[in-house]
Write a structure and sequence with these properties.
Order of helices and strands: EEHEEHEHEHHH
Distance between the termini: 39 Å
Helix content: 25-40%
Strand order of the largest sheet: 2-1-4-3
Strand content: 5-15%
Structural class: alpha+beta
Number of strands: 6
Length: 203
């Protein structure tokens, strides 16, 4: 993967990783992104060794920011954030086997940072709505979500480790199908209003 300098890359890209030593989130931006940053952002510690970059070691960014939304707030002009859920927020059935329990712990862990960011966005939105900030210094974010929980909850915990080409094609097709449905239903609301009720879904 070649490096993309911020001066000539048409799209801003942010990849997050978790610093193993400091527990701080590291956000790699356009001109910092190469193979190591991509590997670090997806490094699951139970499967891979930590990825070393400039003397620091990193695990998957999902532990501290899944996704990290603050770069979109402070470094981008758009107010719209579209979250693509790959881990179900809710499960109707209680996990009972060791595999199911570990899978649910993983889902909760990776969703926890998203829940925290949504609480912060809800807090700022309320300040704006209540006119508590008169200097217009706060940015109202519009939140959207694309998900396939009805299908994802039916997949086994081992599916996340299944790199069989047919499985990857199936998951990609599911993602495209759900994205198409979402776009058909919500595209006209982009830039105008959130299509997710933050308090109902995340708080």
């Amino acid at each position: 993967m070649g490096r993309c300098g911020s001066g000539h890359c048409p799209v801003k890209l942010f990849l997050s990783a978790t610093n193993v030593r400091t527990v701080k989130i590291k956000v790699f931006q356009n001109d910092e992104i190469g193979p190591e940053a991509v590997l670090a952002s997806a490094c699951l510690p139970f499967i891979f060794q930590a990825v070393e970059i400039d003397g620091e070691h990193y695990w998957d960014g999902g532990y501290m920011g899944n996704p990290a939304i603050f770069p979109l707030i402070y470094s981008c002009e758009s107010r719209d954030v579209v979250i693509v859920h790959i881990n179900p927020l809710e499960r109707a059935r209680l996990p009972t086997t060791a595999s199911e329990i570990m899978n649910r712990i993983n889902e909760i862990s990776f969703n926890s940072s998203l829940m925290r960011e949504m609480r912060a966005i809800a807090f700022v939105t309320k300040l704006i709505d209540d006119r508590k900030m008169g200097d217009n210094s706060l940015k109202r974010m519009l939140i959207h979500g694309i998900e396939g929980a009805d299908v994802l909850t039916q997949l086994s915990a081992l599916n996340k480790l299944n790199t069989d080409w047919g499985n990857l094609i199936y998951l990609m097709g599911l993602g495209r199908e759900r994205a198409d449905i979402w776009l058909e239903t919500n595209f006209d609301r982009l830039g105008k209003q959130s299509t997710v009720n933050i308090r109902e879904q995340y708080l």
